[in-house]
Amino acid sequence: MKTIKMYFIFCLFLFITIGGNAQNTSSDYLSTNYEVQFVRTGLQGTELFKVYSYGKNDDQAIKNAKSDAIKAIFFKGIPGSGYTSPMITDFSLLESKKDFFNTFFETDQFQQYVSVSGDGTVEEKYKVGKRVKVAVIVSVQKDNLRKFLESAGIIRKFGLD
Question: Tell me, what's the pLDDT at 111?
Fold first, then answer.
């Protein structure tokens, strides 16, 4: 009985250790555990979106909302916006350029291209289990984001075959 208990504890520890060190996979970037709605076109190459996202607290949910807006533009498309189709349509890039995407999202490089609009207040907030779901308006610098992806070789320059 004691051996079974020790084995169970060892397996649980191993599972937690391995799971904690896991890298993002392509399915992490394609996850749609968020909602994004087009609000309006902003100034000088920006677009405003209302993003509903989750986090363990308000700050984490707001940060997730900013990265979720970028993920929606990259991989999903947003109806009504300038990106009704995703910027990245070749999902094999998620594996072949894995280091690029991991660096872009995990080192917060994406934050150069997105900000919370206005005074940064949460428009809506819901308690969902132990997490919160917030709605915030974010501004995405779509022109600069496109240029960045083009220079990194992720997408082709606009108008080129």
Answer: 92
